[in-house]
Amino acid sequence: MACGTLKLPGGGFAVVCGLPKPKPCCYCGKASTKLCDFPLTGGKAGSTCDRPMCHRCTTHIEPDTDYCFPHAQEMKRRRG
Ligand SMILES: [Zn+2]
Ligand SMILES: [Zn+2]
Questions:
Q1: Which three-class secondary structure string do you get for the chain?
Q2: Ligand that lies nearest to the alpha carbon of residue 28, given by its number in the listed order
Q3: Model confidence over 5-52: pLDDT tens digits?
Q4: What ligand is nearest to the CA atom of residue 37?
Q5: Considering the entire predicted model, what is its pTM?
Q6: Which one is predicted more confidently, 53 or 20?
Q7: Distance CA 48, CA 65 (A)
């Protein structure tokens, strides 16, 4: 979880935890709303790609699954 400091108008600081800013979309840099759901294999088995993307750059395939571009291609290949 990301923690950061927030500068207050009065000159003080507040520590902000639990409200991480959305990561920028890895393709266009806008605030991401989706993460790639592609299940990784090998050393990272059990986790997902998690590449951040905005809703315009994601590839939506399953009813509730989003993939980055290379992983969307990979899933299409696997499905034949
Ligand atoms: Zn984008
Ligand atoms: Zn991916």
A1: CCEEEEECCCCCEEEEECCCCCCECCCCCCECCEECCCECCHHHCCCECCCEECCCCCEECCCCCEECHHHHHHHHHHHC
A2: 1
A3: 778 888 888 777 776 677 999 999 999 999 999 999 999 999 999 999
A4: 2
A5: 0.71
A6: 53
A7: 12
The tokens of 45 are what? 């088995």
Q: How far is the CA of 9 from the centre of ligand 1 (A)?
A: 32
Q: Which residue has the tokens 């905005």?
A: 54
- The CA-atom distances, in angstroms, between 31 and each of 8, 42, 47 are 23, 30, 22
Q: Which two tokens stand for residue 77?
A: 């290949």
